[in-house]
Amino acid sequence: MKILVCISNVPDTTTKVKFKEGDSLFDDSGVQWIINPWDELALTRAMELKEDAGNSVNEICVIHVGGASADATLRKALAIGADKAVRIDACPADAYHVAGQIAEYLKENPFEIIFSGIESSDYNGSSVGAMIAEFMDYPGISSVTSVNLDDDDIQVNRAIPGGKQVLKTETPFVAVVQKGIAMEPRIPSMRGIMMARKKPLEVKPAAELEVLTESIKFELPQEKGACKMIDSESAEQLVDLLKNEAKVL
Amino acid sequence: MNFEFTEEQLMIRDAARDFAQRELLPGVIERDEKAIYPTEQVKKLGELGFLGMLVGLDYDGGGMDTISYVLAMEEISKIDSSVSVIMSVNNSLVCWGVEKFGTEEQKQKYLKPMARGEKIGAFLLSEPEAGSDATSQRTTAVDMGDHYLLNGTKNWITSGKSASTYIVIAQTHPELKHRGINALIVEADSEGISVGPHENKMGMRASDTHSVMFNNVKVPKENLLGEEGFGFKFAMKSLEGGRIGIASQALGIASGAYELALKYAQERKTFGKEIINHQAIAFKLADMATEIEAARFFCLKAAWLKDQGKPYGHASAMAKLYAAETAMKVTTEAVQIHGGYGYVKEYHVERLMRDAKLTQIYEGTSEIQKIVISRGLVD
């Protein structure tokens, strides 16, 4: 059984976000890139499934749609334990475009399980996994918090408001995973880092796919105003400010 | 000349940073305060391969270069130098010596478990009367024909209690002075070995520093490292590499304190503005950043020389001297920038300041480094 883990290459969460070219493009100069945290958890769960001798999982592949700047991120995934990496050499335009590229790869290279993080910490689209399932006509399960394999009996838990839902499914399927799928991401070991250089990182040409949206402009949220300290005995002043300045009362 | 790190080196640095933040930061203050040995943390460090990262892949190590080691040591030392000293001693004193000078049998038996992090090594050179003057070894290893009989006391031994494997420097032929000294691999559970109480230290309180006493301890002849009489030279060569580890540790302590001070200076306000906007504080930070960068270059230069197979003893002494002095200065300034908060434990910088002091003392004091450097000037 083979697992494909979709990897987004996202800016480190401490990145100071800037835009360029009239705020139409993200300025990635000086940005440190990391594996999207939800994808990293997905990879961790995939590793756990492979390490469980009771499972028939024998290969984990990570896939990314993007430029060569993501290669370091893919090498990290290999160092963590993925067996191979594939980069579709395309400039990712939107979720539809990314999902389409991955689906084209899947048509030629079938996998039994496809993991996709529930969202990426940069563009926050939350769509790629579901779109892959639709493109491939596979079952697609969202908000997945656990995947357990017992021969052909596959049990998937998903979070629902206030509880969880337990599902059975068959391969191939797409699991859109969220927090809970694994305890915490793995730190690559020294041996893993050394082995990563010997593992394959294939670069595939992009498929000719339609791009449905065009990004026009980015805006940062408004900066928070300075904090006003009100004396604890001046409740009237606080009420006045909330009413007339903040206009929340 | 290339100032770029490789993808792998950066990955190792990031792995060390993640490990330090995730596994070492929680509880570091309590471990220091109560002098609790970081058992779980060292176990995880070993599982990730940091304890044997410099050992070749053939002997179950990580097969990493020394530049990667500097980067990893810096990141771990930013958070917890009680852990990084265990890593430094195991890697650059004990494993290095066995890999470089040990027999194939010694490597199979002793090096592999240490490289995997399953066993910890300790380096036993210092004695009550032989610290900086390492030639005055009073511990004796008398040649009894089929074994050595070890007697004496070693002081200030990092991992003295937790180590399973000791490298002991002892005098076999006193008449030959330092040419009569041997280096022996000694199993820590051998009959006749006793370990003194945990030293109640000022800094690096969580690492287990002990005296180790030998009373008629039989050491098999096959546990001799190198040739007869090679022990003193072995110790000096081991310390050349060890200094890169401790220099990198001092660098990490300095940069850890600097990062905390920089963050604090951007948040703390006095007289209506953040204190980083007061020139008195800004200039301190500028000096700290500059000296840390210089210390980093010293460490990386020594590491690069070692990786290239070039002589590095002079460079590692300079790195150790400069980084240790920088650590002491920078941590002191970091406490000053924090003001009263810097003097309490929860802000970390007072611990880093206490830890920094030891880097000026162990594995060759700053004064000894100056002897090494000055002698190198006229060689």
TrEMBL record, chain A:
One of its GO terms (cellular component) is cytosol. InterPro entries: ETF_a/b_N, ETF_b, ETF_beta_N, Rossmann-like_a/b/a_fold. The lineage of its organism: Bacteria, Pseudomonadati, Bacteroidota, Bacteroidia, Marinilabiliales. Pfam families: ETF. Residues 23-213 form the Electron transfer flavoprotein alpha/beta-subunit N-terminal domain. It comes from Marinifilum flexuosum. One of its GO terms (molecular function) is electron transfer activity. Belongs to the ETF beta-subunit/FixA family. Keywords: Electron transport, Transport. SMART domains: ETF. The keyword Cytoplasm does not apply. This is Electron transfer flavoprotein subunit beta.
TrEMBL record, chain B:
Its EC number is 1.3.8.10. Residues 122-217 form the Acyl-CoA oxidase/dehydrogenase middle domain. Residues 6-118 form the Acyl-CoA dehydrogenase/oxidase N-terminal domain. Signal peptide: none annotated. Transmembrane segments: none annotated. Residues 231-377 form the Acyl-CoA dehydrogenase/oxidase C-terminal domain. Its cofactor is FAD. The keyword Ribonucleoprotein does not apply. It holds the Pfam family Acyl-CoA_dh_M. Coiled coil: none annotated. Keywords: FAD, Flavoprotein, Oxidoreductase. GO terms for molecular function: acyl-CoA dehydrogenase activity; flavin adenine dinucleotide binding. Belongs to the acyl-CoA dehydrogenase family. This is Cyclohex-1-ene-1-carbonyl-CoA dehydrogenase. It comes from Marinifilum flexuosum. The lineage of its organism: Bacteria, Pseudomonadati, Bacteroidota, Bacteroidia, Marinilabiliales.
